[in-house]
Amino acid sequence: MNSRAWKQSRIPLLLVAFMVMAIIGVIQSFRLPSEERQVTVGVILASSLADRGWNEGHYSSLLHACQGHGCRLILREFVPEKQSELHTAVEELIQDGAQAIFLTSFGYGNYVSGLADRYPGVAFFSISGKGNAKNSTYYFSRLYQARYLAGIVAGAASRTGVLGFVAGMPNPQTNRNINAYAKGIRRANPEAKLIVHFIGSWDDEQKERKSVASMAAEGADVITYHTDKPYAIREAEARNLFSTGYDAQYEQYSERFLTAALYDWDVVYEKVLGDYLSGRVNMSQGYWLDMEEKGVRLSELSPLVSEQTKALVDAEYQRIRREGVFTGVIYDNKGRLRCDEGERISDRQLFNGMEWFVEGVAVHD
């Protein structure tokens, strides 16, 4: 074999070797954990780790997963959704040895790409779908599935056909839950209306209680919320209104508390952290666990929920397993067709692009 032919025959082997080395380089850039040392995991919270709400749910479940895998968990709490404060918290965690950092508030996603680029050896997990760095990804649960079912319960229970939704701030996560809830309401009561108040904060007891009072004055007899704490439910209870819960359930209420759309962060963190530690994590794909994967669920129904409503919830659960929540003909609240017969709104649109509200939603100041 002449020299030229010999070189040509080795080209494919050289290409394979180059690709293998490149893959190894990428993997090493994530600083995947070694079995020979304890892995340190960081978590950043927007409020207190003991708030009996959103932040406590994330912290306690991640702590449980870390304990199960022998990891060390370190945290920074009360970190605003602002670039400077977030960067400082991340730097402190990394200085303390964090190899993977979980960003648990939606607004943190605005800065995750910059953080990931700045610290290429750290894995970043954000509940926001933003960012496309090779060492960052998103994780979440499809709460909107349980919200849809809770909406059916709420719509069936309403006597006035007017329901209220106290929301923190508009973003795709909040909006898709409002829309799923409204679709469920109108599945049970096609003429019902959902009043939405955005209060501009994830945690403001005075504004949330005031919103419930305002909605009640407009005729709302079923209340739900999408903020960090259940102030809206407490106000609904005080006013003898029906309500449905969200996120987690730490308190016992009257039978007027009809049900709740709940995350199971234990399942989510076990899956995501387990994949990271084993090297199975796919940073380009992300995680969005559904009801089938036990990432979300509907809580026990109140005794006040009728057998007819229970049967409708069961039937609709089976339907959305096959078809999804946002399928078929969907109009927004301005009369624009958003989804047609035989169509389905894509996951990409649901996660990052839902800036509109479905028919039957009225956003009030």
From TrEMBL:
Residue ranges crossing the lipid bilayer per the database entry: none
Domain of life of the organism encoding this protein: Bacteria
Domain ABC transporter substrate-binding protein PnrA-like: 39-324
Keywords, alphabetical: Signal
This protein's name: Nucleoside-binding protein
Cellular compartments per GO CC: plasma membrane
Pfam families: Bmp
Entry-linked PANTHER family: ABC TRANSPORTER SUBSTRATE-BINDING PROTEIN (PTHR43208)
